[in-house]
Amino acid sequence: MSELVDRWFETEVLPLEGRLTRYLRRMWRDPAEIDDLRQEIYVRVYESAHNRIPPAAGPHLFAVARNLLIDRLRRARLVPIDHGADLARLNVITDEVDAERVLSGREEIRRLQEIVAILPPRCREVFRLRKVLGQSQKEVAATLGIAESTVEKQLAKAMRVLAAQFYGGGGGEAEASAATADTHETGVTGRG
Amino acid sequence: MRLASQVEAEAARWLARQDAGELDSAEEAEFRRWIDASTAHRVAFLRMKSLWTRADRLRLVAGGGLLASDLVDDRAEEEPAGLRPSWRRWRLPAGAATLAAAAAAAWLLLAGPQDYATPVGGFERIPLADGSRVELNTNTAIGVSYGRRGRRIELDRGEAFFQVARDESRPFVVEAGEFRVTAVGTAFSVRREGTGIELVVTEGVVRVDHSEGPQIGPPLLVPAGRRVELEPTGPIVTRASDAQMEAELGWRDGVLVFADRPLRELVAEFNRYNRRQLVVLDPAVGNIRVAGRFRPTNLDGLLRLLRPGFGVEAVPYGSERIVLRRAQD
């Protein structure tokens, strides 16, 4: 069962993260709390899927998100003046969610390349050798003349940036593109 | 619940640790404890892991650069025999050329060729009378002759992509230098490179003949998903992943897709699109590895990127040339 839920979560829920993040940003005043809200929403969605995997991930995900936000608003000590209005706004139109366009393979690659290009130089080089050229961590360490533990750390760092940008960055929309210049050049890798 | 940023950092650390090599039993136990401790941990790890797997697609893109040297043997294994005719059999008696030309003329009822061309840096979509479509890349010239029994395109120079409307009774033939590419209903691109051509097939099957005479060996049949470089000395057939095909045909969207290739190749590509020509004299500069997506008509964008990106500076030489050399810091 657990594996089934894992798979469902990966294939049905995670691709909606860009939209979920945009929704949370629109609805929640404090951007610093978005990641934590998302984490809590995921936990609720994942745990409820152990009882029953919902037929449509999108509407379910956004229902959970809305309920969480309502809870939070109600529990908030200072009730905002436009409380009613806020609650109304929370009713996201879920049709919109069903229409979410999952990135095609080539868009996905494009996006990954764009994100890799904005990694700090050392981090980018490590990631590139490991994931683009397919070297092992040991080989990467030898190629760059650095400790294997450094390779491991840089990879972990690269993955955090990648996750934040790829999932949350808005599925190919403008939000995450600050790092890409007008010419579309997105990557310069080291010397050969 | 713990802070998401903290949990994510831990998830990324575990992922990188697992990737470094097999966990020993103590580490494995520690990982189990961590991931079972909370759903937040499990979910964060799933999220990282899923992306880690997706990132392997980047490798496919890079594959193009490896094919030539690394995969020669695989290729020999992979290709059905029919796809690898002995090129020697294609070498043709010189006198046959005239015969072939006469045959071609008889075969087509020419309706007066129509010429289309793009300037350096240009791009053009051309709808043809039968519903086929042609896209011309930079500095490209074609002549189109439609007859009752055939559709004939001459690729005089440059690179073009063809989306061919199906018509069994009228083969669609692209003549490119020494080669003739024939399709019925399919999509492919042809690029002239010196004496050879480069052919990328995205749909259906196309047939390539050496046009200098009657066929002696079997024709080369190229199915979708293949990229072929044809030189008078012999064909090189490579199987192309979707990502590679996309890179090859990026020009249709106005971009060059580079995944770890030498700067000199990027320079050669840019020079196809711009009057101002880049010149690289220092081989060390030419060998710098480059990856990314470039808009080839935006030369200034590339020039701006050179110093921060490659440690290379651009020095104008007259009004039409720009020399690239190591930045003097």
Describe this structure in words.
The complex is a heterodimer of chains A (192) and B (329). With 192 residues, chain A is an all-alpha fold. Chain A is 66% helix and 0% strand. In chain A, helix 3 packs across helix 4, helix 8 packs across helix 10 and helix 9 packs across helix 10. The radius of gyration of chain A is 20 Å and the shape is elongated. The termini of chain A are far apart. In chain B, helix 1 crosses helix 3, helix 2 crosses helix 3 and helix 4 crosses helix 7. The termini of chain B are far apart. With 329 residues, chain B is α+β, with helices and mostly antiparallel strands. Chain B contains 10 helices and 19 strands. About 17% of the residues of chain B have low confidence. At the A-B interface, helix 1, helix 3, helix 7, helix 8 and helix 10 of A face helix 1, helix 3, helix 4, helix 7 and strand 15 of B.
Give the gist of this structure:
The complex is a heterodimer of chains A (192) and B (329). Chain A has 192 residues and is mainly alpha-helical. Chain A has helices spanning 2-13, 17-27, 34-51, 57-75, 83-89, 94-98, 105-118, 121-132, 137-144, 148-168.
How would you summarize the topology of this molecule?
The complex is a heterodimer of chains A (192) and B (329).
Chain A lengths: L1 H12 L3 H11 L6 H18 L5 H19 L7 H7 L4 H5 L6 H14 L2 H12 L4 H8 L3 H21 L24
Chain B lengths: L3 H17 L4 H13 L1 H16 L2 H14 L1 H7 L17 H12 L6 E4 L6 E4 L5 E4 L4 E6 L4 E7 L1 E5 L8 E5 L2 E5 L3 E7 L2 E8 L1 E6 L9 E4 L2 E6 L2 E6 L2 H7 L7 E7 H11 L3 E4 L2 H4 L2 E6 L4 H12 L1 E6 L3 E6 L3
Helix pairs in contact in B: 1-3, 2-3, 4-7
